[in-house]
Amino acid sequence: MHNAEPLENLADQFARFPGVGRKGAVRMAYEVMSMSNEQAMELARAIQDAKTKLHRCRLCQDYTTSELCPICASQKRDRTVICVVEAPRDIKAIERTHEYNGLYHVLHGLISPMDGIGADQLCVKELLARLDGTVKEVIMATSPTVEGEATAMYLAKLIKPLGIKTTRLAYGLPVGSSLEYADETTLYRAMEGRGEM
Amino acid sequence: MHNAEPLENLADQFARFPGVGRKGAVRMAYEVMSMSNEQAMELARAIQDAKTKLHRCRLCQDYTTSELCPICASQKRDRTVICVVEAPRDIKAIERTHEYNGLYHVLHGLISPMDGIGADQLCVKELLARLDGTVKEVIMATSPTVEGEATAMYLAKLIKPLGIKTTRLAYGLPVGSSLEYADETTLYRAMEGRGEM
Fold first, then answer.
1. Tens digit of each residue's pLDDT (9 = 90 or more) over B108-122
2. DSSP per residue over B104-138, as a string?
3. Three-state SS string across A148-189, please?
4. Which of A101, A106, A163, B184 is deepest in the core (most CB within 10 A)?
5. Helix count and strand count (H, E) for chain A
6. What pTM, to 2 d.p., does this model score?
7. At what angle do helices B22-34 and B5-14 cross, to 10 degrees?
8. Cβ contacts of B43 on chain A, cutoff 8 Å
9. Least CB–CB distance from B43: residue in A41, A47, A63
10. CA distance A197 to chain B (A)
11. Taking the CB of residue B98, how many other CB atoms lie within 10 A of it?
């Protein structure tokens, strides 16, 4: 009806993003049309750049432009601890706490039999290859979900026999939340993990 | 910290879209990274295609790949009525009702002194150029907002003196809504515009 297949096509492309519905995708496509030509070309170039210039760090598998990411290349980081996360965005979240000074390892996913994702599709062997004797502790920082738990358990079973300490992030009440709204499991875990004041 | 400027840059680009916050933009950038190379290049190409292949219809100013959009080019549409809308997406919304068979005109914006947008930045002269004697009615289908009203009023003042009937979409209760939740102004307008059963 609209003779505007390039627009439809663009909306289809945007609709692929998680959290972007059909209406949002159409809105984004129209937004591209109302951009200046330079702005639109800049956006297209940014996509191409990200895909061509970035690749995975040889050690931690985070995205980087060089062979090693700045964290893996840094001499200031504690090389005896590796924090295992699901995705690169989790590294950013942990770095924002300024509390952790070790290295990271990105799995690029979680074990999820429902979605047909097994351990062989994650960066597990890259992690095992890093456990060369320098590493004294591996922290499982996957999400407290079924998949996150299953992945942490699976990895712990592989790593513990190597004589390396394997830890898990603490469960408990989110800071600033109201106890009243905490679900039973969280409250149970918070009680279980209580510490002396 | 992350040595991933191409990723930051891409997130900046996505953050430009209305309704996409910083977190959403970062998520989208990571999503691009997890796409296959072909998928990412397809997305970049879709953006370039939309901007290069589409332009405004010579008459109604909607986006199209040809000189005239299919609606303006159609012999089946009633050429005596023009429905004035803010944006191309509004045409789609009205077409979905299958109730209107006239032509359209896209203003590409609304008068908004607060944002410094005056009538000269909208496609107003293109509309006036179309009022050549064939057109008997102009329907103002801008949104029932302050800017939509102001724009409709402004255009009506220009068009009425030409002896052309100028109408406005009806105000009233949205179908399927609960009267209880209707705001006073809507209810007042619904009462005012009541029709015989």
1. 999 998 889 999 999
2. EEE-SS--BGGGTB-GGGTTHHHHHHH-SSS--EE
3. HHHHHHHHHHHHHHHCCEEEECCCCCCCCCCHHHCCHHHHHH
4. A106
5. 8, 6
6. 0.74
7. 120
8. 13, 16, 47
9. A47
10. 35
11. 7
